[in-house]
Amino acid sequence: MKNSTPFLPTTRREFLARSSGGLGLIAFSRFAPSFLVQSTLAAAPAPEKDRSILVLVQLAGGNDGLNTLIPFEDADYYRLRPTLGIAKDKVLRASDTLGLHPAMAAMHGLLHDGKLAVVQNVGYPNPNRSHFRSTEIWETASRSDEFAATGWIGRYLDNACAGQPLDSHDPVAVHVTNGVPPSFLGAREHATFGLQPGAGNRRENEETRQLLEKMVAQTGAGDENDNGTFLRHTLMDALVTEQKVQRLLGDYRPGAGVNYPGNPFAASLRNVAALIAAGLPTRVYFVSISGFDTHSNQLAAQANLLTQLSDGLAAFQKDLEAHKLDGQVMTMTFSEFGRRPSENESRGTDHGTAAPLFVLGSRVRGGLHGTAPSLKLERNQDLTFSTDFRQVYATALDSWLGCPSAAVLGGKFDRLGII
In this structure, are residues 124 and 142 in contact, taking their beta carbons and an 8 Å threshold? Predict the structure, then answer.
């Protein structure tokens, strides 16, 4: 018997692999329910165009928190980092004892304006130092000894976006990454969409459109079974959404006086701003910047990355303000772990535990939140976290997205005063 749908994904691994090839990829996201667990629904509203939006920014590789939010009055910091410690006179002060890396001038301005909250020393119990596993813990919001099949954003969509019609071409979540983030995997059917990082170009967009058209045509003849019909409809949805999104990105003009830096991260944020300005009902966007695994020669590498992060986020916030959309959008960073407090022999840092994260927006309560870590440590000892990352998620869910966090996180976590 002829198999008319040879590329129908049947496992989570295959789903992730098939969803990372550069298509708009509303396509394969709808097959997730056949191999993911169920979730309890909460009575949260369906998405509306004027509702709050969350933008997640992943600092992939494990950003070094101590050289991001610097304890410049702590002698132990300089003891542990004789060559990597940032000089006190270069630090951009956030308080009498803490300050931002000198490459983060643009974000320091947002902090001064009350639009940037810095949550200190964020982590989780029994930390894992594997990039893959720790990222999975952060994206699924699971315990370190628990393996969850769905991500925290996927479960949010299960709860909050259950009322969206399945035939809608507008995505409820968009990722600007090379693959579907594990955080997007849900137990129900949701229209999600993927863009390649950076600005893209006309040739790549045309190739994507042609590939989608070819895939639709391949499912057109002899596909009378339910899977073939469903796949064809899904691919047609992908094609329609791809065409619409590319038109919106091509037509978009940033606000007056807004200049995005010329790097892929900033271009990705520009594309997110374009889709938000178009009034899509999308509730969550996911963007990533990689390279934070600084085992050697950290000073220059991290400075370059923090410049990209700071300048990109500042341009994004200014663009939202120019379009009077800043009241709808909150941006939050995360990284799989911080680095060890003591530097290594290669003038870098190794995998650690806790680190600060940033929450940005016109409606956040700016300033420092949480407790700074103790540095009374021996060489190669790790920081002890003081804020559980699920407290940040609970705050975003309850206070920003309007979805009961316990239904998504599987328990109650104290909210933070960042909104």
Answer: no
Q: What are 56-101's pLDDT values in tens digits?
A: 999 999 999 999 999 999 999 999 999 999 999 999 999 999 999 9
Per-residue pLDDT reduced to its tens digit, 86-144: 999 999 999 999 999 999 999 999 999 999 999 999 999 999 999 999 999 999 999 99
What's 401's domain CATH number?
Answer: 3.40.720
Measured distance CA(136)–CA(333) in Å, rounded? 16
Residue 47 backbone phi and psi in degrees, to 5: -65, 145
Closest CA to 86 of 66, 111, 106, 62: 66
Q: Per the structure, how many domains does the chain have? A: 1
Q: Which domain holds residue 41?
A: 12-336+351-409
CB atoms within 10 A of CB 199: 16
d(Cα 372, Cα 122) in Å, to the nearest integer? 10
CA distance 137 to 139: 6
- Rounded to 5°, angle at Cα 97 from 96 and 98: 110
pTM of the model: 0.86
Strand ordering across the sheet containing 69-70 = 69-70, 99-100, 92-93
- 2 domain residue, yes or no: no
Whether residue 342 lies inside any domain: the answer is no
> What is the DSSP secondary-structure string of 95-112?
SSS-EE-TT-HHHHHHHH
Angle, vertex CA 395, rays to CA 389 and CA 400, nearest 5: 135
Domain for residue 3, yes or no? no
In a domain, 269, yes or no: yes
